[in-house]
Amino acid sequence: MTVWYDFDEVDAFTVGTVGRPGSRTFFLQIRRGNTHVTVKCEKQQAAAIAQYLRRVLSDLPEPTERPMPGAMELTDSFEAAFVLGPVGLGYNRESDTVLVQLDEVPLVDEDDEPVGSDDDEDDDRSHVRLLLTRSQAAAYCARADEIVSAGRAVCRWCSRPIDPDGHACPRMN
Question: DSSP strand E in 69-160: where?
């Protein structure tokens, strides 16, 4: 099922996880009023969005507002509308907003060729487009840093993640 959401304002844009370190599932969530859109993503995608937003914010005045406590937590709606593929990001100086476009991962055939038409009008992938204030972008960056760093510890000898149940380090054999 194709979904298309276009938010000129949002109450929250956040990232969170379900599961324990080593088997976490990452989600982006957009909320506006009673509308909640959840998108499944990879840890690296969540971190890359934060990295880009941080670069944009570094050239702008410091945000003066901060989201209310708890606003950056995921709601209980974990059913993803789609799995994240390409991400588009930009900044509009006139409105002082950051544009974020989240597109569904494209379907590919067994030869890794895109399935479907090359014509954008016939594109049946899901999309979410939203505009963020500088404060919301900064809050997303802080939340993403917290979520990404809350993963598994890294082995000091082999640099591989250490599972909660232990770690078979190839350098310690």
Answer: 82-92, 97-104, 127-132
